Amino acid sequence: MNSVTVRVPAKVNVQLSVGPLRDDGYHDLVNVFHAVSIFDEVVAQEAEDVSVQVLGESADQVPVDDGNLAVQAARALAKHAGRAQGVHLVIRKAIPVAGGMAGGSADAAGALVACNELWGLGLPAGDLMKIAGALGSDVPFALLGGTAIGTGRGEQLTEVATGARFHWVFAIADAGLSTAKVYAECDRLREALGEQVAWPQVNDALMEALRNGDARALGAELINDLQPAALMLRRQLARTLESGREHGALGALVSGSGPTCAFLAADEAHARDLAVALTGAGVCRSALTAHGSVPGATII
Ligand code: C5P
Q1: pLDDT tens digit string along 61-93?
Q2: 136 lines ligand 1 (CB under 6 A)
Q3: Which one in 17, 104, 132, 200 has a CA-CA gap of 20 to 30 Å to 122?
Q4: Set 28, 40, 138, 225: catalytic member
Q5: Contact 239, 284 (CB under 8 A)
Q6: Contacts of 267-271 spanning 24+ positions with Cβ under 8 A
């Protein structure tokens, strides 16, 4: 039987600046995505209909009906190609579910690349990007990988060259957070505080740190406007972030809408030590080490 396997990375946002709420319910962003070496695998197998099976930790929390973003991706691709195609998708999850690391978006990107190959469509990257953007704000980046600035709702991408490999630790929480709820809490907090919401701007010092491969400078510049909202919805994350700082992280922030917390380490050995310390401190379910940036969805 014909099958295609695609490997897709998780992301962390090294800058997530959230602008005002738009009429369509989204926010304009400056979203600096960074792909890291925690990968889901999406296997596309020949089948009559579209179906999905999810394996791995927390797989039971992922829908296996039309609510699954990878299923939506396969259907959107078939529609774009004007073909009635089926596929059986097998997703092996390593990216935390509802963790703020774009795992669902990664699976959708994986399904697009895998089905494009399985069905012999030969669609160019630009077409896949367009379909990806309609599926979700983070799906185009999961196709692209590397490090990139996302504007609009995060789907308009400009690649950024990085000067070195960065080493990270991710503290995984017991239960996920809904992205929509975290954005809503961000709006609520801003209104309650009477905050003027500025148009988001790229942080030049952060871009320079990325270009120079300067982990110390990058650690000092990490920004996430969703962090106060995520901390409000999950109070214990403040303790997780503090624990990482106490153990010498160069920077600590909530990853995207959370609840995963990201810690920048000086090097690979430091990342390993930090992961052991965070697990030992009992401030997370588990801690994963990873590096970035890494390529986007890739056939293996
Ligand atoms: O695009 P995606 O489906 O991943 O977004 C999930 C939710 O996150 C949206 O329904 C919206 O509530 C929120 N969101 C937002 N502004 C963005 C991206 C996402 O408000 N730029």
Answers
A1: 999 999 999 999 999 999 999 999 999 999 999
A2: yes
A3: 104
A4: 138
A5: no
A6: 267/167, 268/167, 270/167, 271/167, 271/168, 271/169
